[in-house]
Amino acid sequence: MLKLSQSTLSHAELKIINEVIQEGYLGMGAFVKKFEEELRIYLKTDREIVTTNTGTSALHLAIQACGIGPGDEVILPSITYVGCFQAISATGAKPIACDIRLNDGMIDIPDMQKRINTRTKAIMAVHYAGSTNGIKEIRQIAKKYGLRLIEDAAHSFGGDFEDNKIGATGDIVCFSFDSIKNITCGEGGAVVTDDKNVANKIRDLRLLGVEKDSENRFQKKRSWDFDVTEQGWRYHMSNINAAIGLAQLSKADHFKQKRQHLVQLYINLLKETGIIPLLKIDKDANPHIFPIRVLGEQCNRLKDYLSSHGIETGKHYKPNHTLTAFKQGALSNAELFWEQELTLPLHCNLKEADIDYICCSINNFFQEVKK
Ligand SMILES: *Cc1c(COP(=O)(O)O)cnc(C)c1O
Q1: 54 CB under 6 A from ligand 1?
Q2: Which DSSP symbol is given to 158?
Q3: What is the pTM of this model?
Q4: pLDDT (tens digit, 9 = 90+) per residue, 47-73?
Q5: CA 274 – ligand 1 centroid, Å
Q6: Which is nearest to 4 in space by CA: 368, 298, 273, 342?
Q7: Does ligand 1 have an atom closer than 6 angstroms to the CB of 151?
Q8: Structure confidence by residue, pLDDT tens digits, 87-117
Q9: From atom 2 of ligand 1, which residue's Cα is the shortest distance away?
Q10: Using alpha carbons only, what angle is made at residue 160 by residues 155 and 166, rounded to the nearest 5 degrees?
Q11: Euclidean distance between CA atoms 280 and 25, whole angstroms
């Protein structure tokens, strides 16, 4: 079976995990500090970087640290990982779903603007599949309305945006390092911002709100006498996860080249099929998934056909406004997208011959449909 997504691991991860074990402390300590420093170097930025235990917790803490909570609204695209919606509702704020664009899965900007009102405190914009289409305009709109902008860059780590690394600009940018992301920590996340107040608040909130505990832990100390002023969480990263992240970070550019190469191959080979790739070839982007649109109600049949030929596919994502917890009025593009979108395998263990095989199988499916 060709897997939809997978982490790419080697001896490097084993070696550094061994170092953590030799050092003797598996919790949050020197390796986490080092990972945060190396991330800063990789992103070529002197901004604040705070790691967390998941991408979802990074988003949750970013919203809480902005002072957003009950009575507030955060606008985000319906087509995203459910973690985005849960992160907002965990603060007591209400996630407000907006529609998306059919050609790239990104926020439909006019529809987003329609939903801004006096309760709106932030926009959460998703770098769907690794794309940053429309992000420049969304930043301008957030600024104009005085809204916080949390960019969910879970898909786009390693990509560039206007000559900077993604994360080096923008109000608040969140990454995920879960096991199938562009780089992995096993599980992990990070918040990048130049807002020192937000960053310091997140440093406290990730350790149960214990004030300045992050600094102590980096020095192998613990806070015994402290104050807590608000609800905090156990959301910090462990040394083990940070160590895996360090090994992965040193391979990040190599992974990016590979992902770009595979996407290029897909786009070339799918030209004849009538299928619409949702990613364009873009030297800046680090593509995380390879979503396509299949017109004419054939999406599910193609999914089954590929599965029976040993090819795992996915659907990114079930529109969140159709879920019981986040029920909201109809969003026509998001609902059509859900019917037509199919995600083909993309990860660094795939070979050129695998992409060939997948595209041939898609071709064969359409040949058989025609008959
Ligand atoms: C993976 C992901 C997240 C959350 O990350 P976790 O580390 O899995 O909690 C958020 N948004 C998107 C779009 C994701 O793909």
Answers
A1: yes
A2: T
A3: 0.97
A4: 999 999 999 999 999 999 999 999 999
A5: 30
A6: 342
A7: no
A8: 999 999 999 999 999 999 999 999 999 999 9
A9: 154
A10: 60
A11: 45
